[in-house]
Amino acid sequence: MKEVRTFKLDYGAEQIFGGHLLGVRSLTGLTFYDWLTGRIIRRIDNNPKGVYWNESGQLVALCTNDTFYILRYSADAVPDSNLPTINNNNHEDIDGYEKAFQVSEIYLICEYKDCKITFML
């Protein structure tokens, strides 16, 4: 097995998640990293028990004990690491790229045996 990338975290990791991006859960939330560069893509104030990507890498489900969130990942919102980001409106901050993820609303309404699911993506 060939080692592709190693990097040191400045915090304690409680759990890691694979998928389109590397997810690292800590006490303060979840951080997504780019697999190849190790760059922070986005920090999210959520401590999911599970992270599940669709095959295309455009949607990710963050699942907690009592709810789940569907986020749409926009790789186009993250500039190429080889390009300069000067004069670019989508610059990286301490929490990564704000526009990298957008919340997709999903409503789940259940009454006894009748369940109605409404997706708004």
Automatic annotation (TrEMBL):
One of its GO terms (biological process) is intracellular protein transport. InterPro entries: Beta-prop_COPA/B_2nd (IPR006692). Residues 4-103 form the COPA/B second beta-propeller domain. This is Coatomer_WDAD domain-containing protein. GO terms for cellular component: membrane coat. GO terms for molecular function: structural molecule activity.
